[in-house]
Write a structure and sequence with these properties.
By secondary structure, the protein is α+β, with helices and mostly antiparallel strands. It contains 13 helices and 32 strands. It has four domains: 130 residues, C2 domain (Immunoglobulin-like, Sandwich), CATH 2.60.40.150; 117 residues, C2 domain (Immunoglobulin-like); 166 residues, Immunoglobulin-like (Sandwich); 167 residues, no CATH class.
């Protein structure tokens, strides 16, 4: 950083104070090129105390970008430098590091705007000239109103979106009286408190006092303003990127930290996708969705076809907009349907604000999902309330130097599909109490609730402490349960338990209809990587499916060979009866009888299926390999990028997984692994049996053909789907069954033996 001379700011030598730093990110100059075309797509991150507090927009293909963006940052430790990092944005790939710099806040004068020029450096290559960043900064003492507003906006954990109530933040807020610095302390159940803020301006040493009633401070927070639904219809006249004059296009979407990737349509310049993606809208003014189109290339980097942007602030709400977006830096255009709708009921609140304990609010929720409202808003299937109460005996992730005291700073992440909410952090505690209530709208009753506990670290990413995955259909309403925390792969226990109380209210008819619709996609996560254990596991799973078919064929062959005369005689008579009297309705009837027979075995207690430990063993081996891979990746960095042979192996690995999962899902449907789905299958098969019995096959085929031929005419932008495959996608595979299996709590661990919380 540049030197600014001696500061006249009177910074206390002890506990730091509350300041507000106003930063204007002006421009960059002569930045390093990180893309093949000799340019970069730079953006800037500000970090304070290891946490990201600001991220700029991306300026595409420019080594001298102009941002002119402003940020207000709350500073509670003036001696902590502001860390500025510049990256080159690569959509869907790891962003390239350009350079970084530090801004020493103690060198700034209070209440005076200063222009700063920062030279970017790379610690690994200190002699390289990586360009410069120009800023304007103003450091001022914080006041009550601005501090409260900034606390709500700027406290984040790395790239995760965190919203915390003022109640959680006040205990760590410093204030000053005279020459002494203090922190507010407050019992967890206080309702009224006095907050004192003092300006440290030496010319205006005035006190500001105000009483704040906590119940009025947004104790039940709605976490986003709306949902943006984007339907990718098609592309037209795209640029040819392959030698054959065609392309293998796919599309990537990005809104803030939310990312999606479409399927790949091979060998075409006019691809048809018909895929839908939902984004959370956090800003009332809207936002900008970045869209890029790529050509898939095996064994090398994908080719860039073009880009476009959708400015959501220009679109009216509660209305579907058809957009034909021309591609910049390329050829052709995309056809999209974009709809902005009101926010789903996703909230976070304290235990004192309980929707289901309020009789009036509970009746409204029950009425919303009653049978009378079945065909009103089909996508709103149900309501989920999660009480995150406490955890016990967590793993100690931090070890301090004083007497080797082990501790953790745990916080909890609650996820349902793409909805992700966080609790506050309880510092220096292995038995934290959060006492938070999260509510979600359920769009698919077959979703899995994931609750993960992390240890917060200021200087690096959060450490994993434990996780549980709970299918919504397995939840017992209103029961407080202790869930044993599992490892990352959900294959075995780790240290600690978490206490949750969960309630699910849903409309069964809506849930059944939603089962036959496409499953919601998750945000883009880590790219698939080659794993020896995963490849072997998928091969063994597929082998089991094939062996089941081989066993069935051998059984039939043994009937032909009369290995067991009574059995062969019974099979022969059954064959003659079925063939002579065969009708098409007997196919679903036979499947119906198979479901009924398995149900009878389960109810009568005669189901003697053995737990398959092969998958569990393979998952444990895979976790060990993942741990080794994580350590290796830290050492090797990006030395081992994707090669052609690795991509082929990953494809084979995924194909094996799909085939094995398909066979396991069919088996688990008939095995009553998920009773809701098995009952739904019985209802469907009963309907099919009756239809096939009373209606001639030619009429059924005629209706099916007319529907298929006229579907595009009746709804040109309908998303293609297969109801049977959508149904099977909700049935868990053997791996998922094992991951969702609830572990038994250690009997030696009892709530009565819980230790008192350590003071935060």
């Amino acid at each position: 950083t540049n030197s600014f001379g001696t500061s006249n700011a009177d910074f206390p030598p002890g506990d730091p104070g509350m300041y507000q730093l106003d930063v204007t990110l002006r421009r960059g100059q002569n930045l390093a090129a990180r893309d093949r075309g000799g340019t970069s797509d730079p953006y800037v991150k500000f970090k304070l105390g290891g946490k990201e507090v600001f991220r700029s927009k991306t300026v595409h293909k420019n080594l001298n970008p102009v941002w002119e963006e402003k940020a207000s940052i709350l500073i509670d430790n003036i001696r902590e430098p502001l860390y500025i990092k510049v990256f080159d944005y690569d959509f869907g790939l790891q962003d390239d590091f350009i350079g970084s710099a530090f801004l020493d806040l103690t060198s700034l004068e209070l209440n005076r705007q200063t222009d700063v020029t920062l030279s970017l450096k790379d610690p690994h290559y200190p002699d390289h000239d990586l360009g410069s960043i120009f800023l304007s900064v103003l450091l001022a003492p914080g006041d009550q109103r601005e501090a409260t507003m900034l606390m709500r906006k700027s406290w984040k954990r790395s790239s995760k979106v965190t919203l915390t109530t003022v109640l959680d933040l006040l205990p760590s807020m410093p204030y000053r009286t005279g020459n002494f610095w203090h922190r507010i302390s407050c019992p967890s159940k206080c309702v009224l408190m006095t907050v004192v803020f003092v300006s440290s301006n030496k010319h205006h040493g005035t006190f500001q006092t105000q009483s704040l009633r906590l119940s009025d401070l947004h104790r039940k927070s709605q976490l986003w303003r709306g949902i943006v639904s984007v339907t990718l219809i098609e592309g037209r006249e795209l640029k040819a990127m392959d030698a054959n004059g065609l392309s293998d296009p796919y599309v990537k979407f990005r809104l803030g930290h939310q990312k999606y990737k479409s399927k790949i349509v091979p060998k075409t310049l006019n691809p048809q996708w018909r895929e839908q993606f939902d984004f959370h809208l956090y800003d009332e003014r809207g936002g900008i969705i970045d869209i890029t189109v790529w050509d898939k290339d095996v064994g090398k980097r994908d080719d860039f076809i073009g880009r476009c942007q959708v400015d959501l602030s220009t679109l009216s709400k509660e209305q579907t907009h058809k957009l034909e977006m021309p591609l910049e830096e390329g050829e052709g255009y995309l056809v999209l349907l974009v709809t902005l709708t009101a926010s789903a009921a996703v909230t976070i609140s304290d235990l004192s604000i309980n929707s289901l304990e309020d009789q009036k609010e509970r009746e409204e929720i029950l009425k919303r999902y009653s049978p009378m409202m079945t065909f009103h808003n089909i996508s709103d299937v149900g309501f989920l309330q999660v009480k995150v109460i406490r955890a016990e005996a967590l793993m100690a992730a931090d070890v301090t130097g004083k007497d080797s005291f082990s501790k953790s700073d745990p916080f909890c992440v609650v996820e349902l599909n793409n909805d992700r909410l966080l609790t506050h952090t309880v510092y220096r505690n292995l038995n934290p109490e959060w006492n938070k209530i999260f509510t979600f709208n359920i769009k698919d009753i077959h979703s899995v609730l994931e609750v993960t506990v992390y240890d917060e670290d200021r200087d690096r990413s959060a450490d994993f402490l434990g996780k549980v995955a709970i299918p919504l259909l397995s939840i017992q309403n209103g029961e407080q349960k202790a869930y044993v925390l599992k490892n990352k792969q959900l294959t075995g226990p780790t240290k600690g338990v978490i206490y949750l109380e969960i309630d699910v209210i849903f409309n069964a008819v809506k849930a059944s209809i939603r089962t036959l619709m496409p499953k919601e996609q998750k945000y883009i996560e880590e790219e698939d990587r080659l794993s020896k254990q995963l490849l072997l596991r998928n091969f063994i799973r597929m082998k089991h499916c094939i062996m089941a078919l081989v066993t069935a064929v051998c059984y039939i062959s043994s009937c032909f060979d009369w290995d067991s005369p009574p059995r062969s005689l019974a099979a022969f008579l059954l064959f003659l009866f079925v063939v002579w009297n065969f009708e098409l309705y007997m196919i679903p009837l036979a499947l119906l009888l198979l479901l009924a027979w398995n149900y009878f075995l389960i109810v009568s207690g005669k189901d003697n299926r053995q737990h398959d430990t092969v998958v569990e063993d393979m998952l444990e081996d895979e976790e060990e390999e993942d741990d080794r891979d994580d350590k290796d990746s830290e050492k090797k960095g990006f030395m081992n990028r994707l090669y052609a042979i690795q991509e082929v192996c990953v494809t084979v690995q995924n194909i094996l997984d799909e085939i094995a999962s398909f066979g396991e899902r069919i088996k688990n449907t008939f095995n009553w692994t998920v009773p809701f789905l098995s009952w739904l299958a019985i209802a469907a098969l009963s309907v099919f049996t009756v239809i096939l019995y009373f209606i001639p096959l030619r009429y059924i085929v005629l209706i099916w053909g007319i529907n298929k031929f006229t579907k595009k005419i009746r709804n040109p932008y309908a998303i293609d789907n297969n109801e049977l495959l959508d149904f099977l996608s909700r049935v868990p595979s053997d791996v998922q069954v094992m991951q969702y299996h609830e572990l038994k709590q250690d009997p030696t661990h009892s709530p009565s033996k819980r230790k008192k919380n350590n003071p935060a």
